[in-house]
Specification:
It catalyses: 2 D-alanine + ATP = D-alanyl-D-alanine + ADP + phosphate + H(+). By secondary structure, the chain is an alpha+beta fold. It has eleven helices and 13 strands.
Length: 324
């Protein structure tokens, strides 16, 4: 059921859709940004594209946007750095603030917060060039997953099935990040829960199950093929659906997320226990993306979803009153 607040598109003023950027997910962001632009314009919003990968903060300030929709993914868009710049410029923006964006982009820090909150996430180890990989493999077991903690869209991730594959997997991730995350491999089904709102008003959308070819939900299968299957609402016992949504809300709130986001899960095959994988504070908005899919299952069109997200744009830090 659609629970969106009616809005006057003209009240948004001049809106910037920030897209492109300089991360490894630039191509995905360009697709997201173009989709959001078209959707907002179709609803009468005075929206304009702004590519943060080729234009400067001075140019952003000069545009005098009344608010911006962040359609950037990965570093320099989803990690708190841009959010900090927007706070300094005084431009209200969509999604999470500086701290939640930064924490959510760091899979290691996210795990630390979730574990402190008593939330289930796969066991892990932080490794570097001097780490004893054999000891890590013995502790976590094989297979295991190796990933750069500050990348998204499964970039740089390797499944290690044998000990002699570990070093090569580490090198791939280390080329993208200063630290590397080794994570226990959870055998089971993959799900995601999209979120709308903030704080006590944060609410989950219907659960989506992702079934990728050979279980490989990689960058190609996420964005550029039609081979991956999606089931929304996911076919699950009602109690398990509710538990996954409950955990998603707790995980989202624990990081301090707001506006919108997405929490990813694995459901362990052996005992049907859900494990939190990561939170996305600026998820994809492409034709293959999961938040629009979940919104549609609740009767919210892509266009209405974009307007709802834009409605929640705000500055998150208190703006001090200057004296003198």
């Amino acid at each position: 059921m659609n629970h969106l607040t009616p809005v006057d598109a003209k009240a948004f003023g001049k809106v910037g859709v920030l897209y492109g950027g300089r991360s490894a997910e630039r191509d995905v962001s360009i697709m997201s940004g173009n989709g959001v632009l078209k959707a907002l314009q179709s609803k009468g919003v005075d929206a304009h594209l702004f590519d943060t990968g080729v234009r400067t903060l001075a140019e952003l300030a000069a545009e005098k946007f009344d608010r911006v929709f962040i359609a950037l993914h990965g570093r320099f868009g989803e990690d708190g750095s841009l959010q900090g710049a927007l706070e300094l410029l005084g431009i209200p923006y969509t999604g999470s603030g500086v701290m939640a964006s930064s924490v959510g982009m760091d899979k290691i820090t996210t795990k630390i917060v979730w574990l402190a909150a008593g939330l289930p996430t796969p066991r892990y180890a932080v490794i570097n060039a001097g780490s004893d990989l054999d000891a890590v493999a013995a502790d976590l077991g094989l297979p295991l997953i190796v990933k750069p903690p500050h990348e998204g869209s499964t970039i740089g991730i390797t499944k290690v099935s044998a000990a002699n594959e570990f070093k090569a997997a580490f090198d791939i991730a280390a080329a993208l990040d200063d630290s590397v995350l080794a994570e226990e491999f959870v055998t089971g089904r993959e799900f995601t829960v999209a979120m709308l709102g903030s704080g006590a008003n944060a609410r989950p959308l219907p659960v989506v199950e992702i079934v990728a070819p050979q279980g490989n939900y990689d960058y190609q299968n996420k964005y550029f093929t039609d081979d991956t299957q999606y089931f929304c609402p996911a076919v699950l016992p009602e109690a398990l659906t509710q538990e996954m949504q409950r955990l998603a809300v707790l995980a989202y709130r624990a990081i301090g997320c707001e506006g919108w986001g997405r929490v990813d899960f694995l459901l362990r095959e052996s005992d049907q226990k859900p494990f939190l994988l990561e939170v996305n504070t600026s998820p994809g908005m492409t034709g293959h993306s999961l938040v629009p899919m979940a919104a549609r299952a609740e009767g919210i069109s892509y266009e209405d979803l974009c307007v709802e997200i834009l409605r929640t744009a705000r500055l998150k830090l208190a703006q001090p009153q200057m004296k003198g």
